[in-house]
Amino acid sequence: xxxxxxxxxxxxxxxxxxxxxxxxxxxxxxxxxxxxxxxxxxxxxxxxxxxxxxxxxxxxxxxxxxxxxxxxxxxxxxxxxxxxxxxxxxxxxxxxxxxxxxxxxxxxxxxxxxxxxxxxxxxxxxxxxxxxxxxxxxxxxxxxxxxxxxxxxxxxxxxxxxxxxxxxxxxx
Amino acid sequence: xxxxxxxxxxxxxxxxxxxxxxxxxxxxxxxxxxxxxxxxxxxxxxxxxxxxxxxxxxxxxxxxxxxxxxxxxxxxxxxxxxxxxxxxxxxxxxxxxxxxxxxxxxxxxxxxxxxxxxxxxxxxxxxxxxxxxxxxxxxxxxxxxxxxxxxxxxxxxxxxxxxxxxxxxxxxxxxxxxxxxxxxxxxxxxxxxxxxx
Lengths: 172, 197
Known about the structure:
CATH topology of chain A: Rossmann fold
CATH topology of chain B: Rossmann fold
Number of domains of chain B: 1
Number of helices of chain A: 8
CATH architecture of chain B: 3-Layer(aba) Sandwich
Largest sheet of chain B: 6 strands, parallel
Radius of gyration of chain B: 15 Å
Number of helices of chain B: 8
Largest interface: A-B, 31 and 37 residues
Shape of chain A: globular
CATH architecture of chain A: 3-Layer(aba) Sandwich
Number of domains of chain A: 1
Distance between the termini of chain A: 35 Å
Helix content of chain A: 40-55%
Distance between the termini of chain B: 43 Å
Helix content of chain B: 25-40%
Radius of gyration of chain A: 15 Å
Structural class of chain A: alpha/beta
Oligomer: heterodimer
Largest sheet of chain A: 6 strands, parallel
Shape of chain B: globular
Strand content of chain A: 15-25%
CATH superfamily of chain B: Thiamin diphosphate (ThDP)-binding fold, Pyr/PP domains
Number of strands of chain B: 8
Strand order of the largest sheet of chain A: 2-1-3-4-6-5
Order of helices and strands of chain B: HEHEHEHHEEEHEHEH
Structural class of chain B: alpha/beta
Low-confidence stretches of chain A: none
CATH class of chain A: Alpha Beta
Low-confidence stretches of chain B: none
């Protein structure tokens, strides 16, 4: 599949009938958020916190509608409690797309530290995650991960590496 | 509207029974943690009830997610004052999206009851219905007594939402404890909503 990463991601969500998009804004995710917001297939809106975005997607799934939460690394770090007490034990497949900050050229020490908490949290509560670094692997990883999450009723995290997105560059 | 001076201090289990008594069209109820949840369980077994077992503060967001997925069904989020205060931003999101089929019921006892009765901010100056109105939820009201609560519930189920109904309640403990089997709670809820046969 051709096109930039955000168009491929949008197509993979559509292919898998993921219609509800909740997010806390992030500059790297902006082209994805813009594309999803402008496509009538999706219902996309921002929330005040990532926990809230996760709760909405969890409720929608129980009501019969698939969704995805878009966030930045630091936003993921706020989710340990609700992943461990809602998504995982209730077997609700919450799909998360996380733009990775804090590595490969980070300029903010706080971001670099919070980034290091992400994979240990995912591993500790048994949530499968994939770090996507290559454009040619994006469609396969996204499509298969969404299908597996739904089929096994397990949450999944797709981590978008700066190698894929370009990341956030230090403002001179 | 700020809380009227005449607002009666009611009882959570009694109000929960009155609420459930009005749910004659398989309306969904999402209950936050603690005694709010326990009294919903005690008020009768309904397949359309979802009981959180953690994730404090997420009853409103979960209900807000069920709403667009189940547009022909009325959805009720049942919360306590402590839980609501933890996720106040969710009220602003509800006001932004304006789901017609969502009602938020807040049982306000002014304490974190399950952790030993420490006061919440509503014991001092915070006013749940006024906060909700400030986020843009114009249809937010205090129930002044049990009959008023029932009238507000009937109206919320009958007319376009979103609605918020706040009720002052006493410190009586819950009358039962919810079963703690998350997968079963979720599966039963999905079957109750017709998502699974």
